[in-house]
Amino acid sequence: MSNTSVSNAPTQKLGRSVRPDFTILGILPFLALIGYFFFYPIAVVFNRSIRDSHSHLSLTTYKALFSGDYRAAFIGSFELAAYSMAISAVIGAAICVALVKTHGNTKRVISAVAGVLTSTGGIPLAFSFIAAFGQEGLVTKALLKIFHWDIYAGAFDIYNFWGILLVYCFFQAPLMVIIFTPAVENLKVEWQEANETLGGTRLQYFRNVTIPVLFPAFLSSCLLLFASGFSAYATAAAMSNGTIPLVPLVIGNLVDGNVIAGEANQGDALAMGMIFVSIIVFALYAVVLRIARKK
Amino acid sequence: MKRGLRLGDRIILIAAGFFFITPFLAAGEYSLRGYGGKGHTWANYTWIFKQLGFGPALFTSLRIAALSVALLLVLMIPTVVYVQLGGRRWARLVEILCLLPIVIPVVSLAIGAQVAMPKALQSTSYELCFFYVIVAMPYVYRALDIGLQSIPLQTLVEASQSLGASWFTTLRRVILPAIASAMTGALFITIALTLGEYTLASLLHFRTFPTWVTNVSQENILGAVALSVATLVGAWLILLILAFIPKFKRNRKGVLAHG
Questions:
Q1: Are the CB atoms for B55 and B208 separated by under 8 Å?
Q2: What is the 3-state secondary structure (H, E, C) of B222-252?
Q3: Predicted local distance difference test score (pLDDT) of residue B65
Q4: Spatial distance between the Cα atoms of A84 and A169, rounded to a whole number of angstroms
Q5: Which residue among A72, A196, B227, B243 is the one 20 to 30 A from B69 at the CA level?
Q6: Are B226 and B144 spatial neighbours (Cβ–Cβ below 8 Å)?
Q7: Which of A14, A19, A27, A44 to mutate: most B Cβ within 10 Å?
Q8: Within-domain flag for B160
Q9: Distance between CA atoms of A81 and A87, rounded to whole angstroms?
Q10: Predicted pLDDT at B249
């Protein structure tokens, strides 16, 4: 075998084609861990999702995704992700634009607070909002007393879709601040000065410089927000007890044993459906980034 | 030359501050309400400590967080250093693999973990450490990668080894101090993620602090709100302190500052 003869040869004669066999050793622990605890479970989910209750190959679980409750769950998750993305992106971007003009401690404190708000989401955030915006909450009462605005007059309830949307915006907007700030910081003050020297108005600057320069970053940030809103589980689970039609909640219910006979693998198909949607969103993200870099 | 804040920017920042602080103040007020809405009292906070399982749940979460951080740093620091030094050809692969845990929803990973992991592992809460390592990996990789790229790694390693240092000594006394702030960043993210993680803990049926909170909250919503406010304030204090540490560290010591 040529392989043995090469590996016995002095080091400097090692062919390029043989080297990968050794250099991969350095990342082997990493590969082993991510392989066993990430790819293997996902592969098992995939394998289960394409089988019926008798372990025969079948796509019935996938067909079920397009009708009834499962379809409603996907639509619900999609709407929640889209609405929270739109609202948070606008609020977050506005904060970014103001934030980059601040200096020193103000900036550091706001960035730290944004980081903290995004990373400490979940359960405590959900209960805080139930307290603040619930029927008896201080915010609800204050809005009624000061502005005579009864937030419970319409469709809103802290325990329904709109309540969850409100909470999502509270951790998505700070997330937008974190991921969009670097792009806004790249806007050069010189461009603004050039615009003024040439007699351009603020509106012209905004339309002809800010928007074209920031648009790719804005779009890619939006996609990240969408993905985060689409797959979030904790907040929705704590606030609704799993009753609102959202894919992660439906999966949670199936995992917790509320399984109708013959639907044992339905959770796996739902999980694959979520993975599929996420992969599409991130593929778009990659495309947008590539276009942005070429510019 | 930076420009000063315009009135419009001030209004945005103040409105945003108000928008983000109000719900938490309102939750704070709610948590101090007496039973049946009468008066204000600390009773809801003292209630927390009387609940069964408070200590064990918190201890479990802290233990899992510590182990996850240790495992993650032991795994990722050598891997990222290696990729930047000798294993350049694997850099792209590692980067892509480290990105995937963000792409795949945690719920999907949880359902996979439940069916794929051996029973022996599922019977202990240490199982969570491995999955928290996966969940935190993208952020930790990014922090370490940026940290290592900002130092002349190759030069530092060659200098250290020409002075006769072993690989372990080089890692411990040259590389680690140089990337201290990146490591703090990685720590910060991992601790925040693991202490607050709910999805995996709940779907794999482990009693960590977040799952314990949702459990006790079903009996007493006032207590649950008090608990949430206390958790958020505690977490924010820890994270804010950690956020300011890198600055002090860099001022005090740091290999690069000396030349």
A1: no
A2: HHHHHHHHHHHHHHHHHHHHHHHHHHHHHHH
A3: 92
A4: 5
A5: B227
A6: no
A7: A27
A8: yes
A9: 10
A10: 53
Q: Kindly state whether B10 is in contact with chain A, defined as any CB-CB distance less than 8 angstroms.
A: yes
> Cα–Cα distances in Å, from A234 out to A131, A250, B17, B106, B198?
17, 13, 25, 10, 6
Chain centroid to Cα A223, Å, comes to 7
Q: Which of residues 18-47 of A touch B (CB under 8 A)?
A: 20, 23-24, 26-27, 29-31, 33-34, 37-38, 40-45
pLDDT grade, residue A20 (50/70/90)? Answer: very low
Does residue B196 sit within a domain?
A: yes
Q: What are phi and psi of A18, to 5 degrees?
A: -90, -30
Contact across the interface for B27 and A282, Cβ inside 8 Å: no
Taking the Cβ of residue B231 and every Cβ of chain A, the question of whether any pair is shorter than 8 Å is answered with yes
| Cα-based angle A197, A203, A209 (whole degrees, multiple of 5) | 70
The structure's pTM equals 0.82
The answer to whether position B259 is within a domain reads no
Tokens of A72: 């409603």
> Is the separation of the CB atoms in A268 and A247 below 8 Å?
no
| CA-based end-to-end distance of chain B | 29
Does B181 fall in a domain? yes
Report pLDDT digits (tens) over B159-177.
998 998 888 888 888 888 8
**Range(s) of the domain holding residue B113:** 52-253
B142 vs B145: CA distance, rounded Å: 5
Question: Hey, what CATH topology would domain A68-294 get?
Answer: MetI-like fold (1.10.3720)
Domain boundaries defined on chain A? 15-49, 68-294
Cβ-based neighbours of B168, under 8 Å, separated by 6 or more? none
Identify whether residues B65 and B169 lie together within a single domain: yes
pLDDT at A217 over 60: yes
For residue B125, what are its two tokens? 């809460």
Mapped onto helix, strand or coil, the DSSP state of residue B150 is: coil
Q: Copy the structure tokens of residue B33.
A: 């309400």
Which band of pLDDT confidence, cut at 50, 70 and 90, is reported for residue B128?
very high
Instruction: Please state the φ and ψ torsions of residue A51, each to the nearest 5 degrees.
Output: -130, 150
Whether residues B201 and B74 share a domain: the answer is yes
- Burial environment of residue B210 by CB neighbours within 10 A (0 to 12, 13 to 18, 19 or more): buried
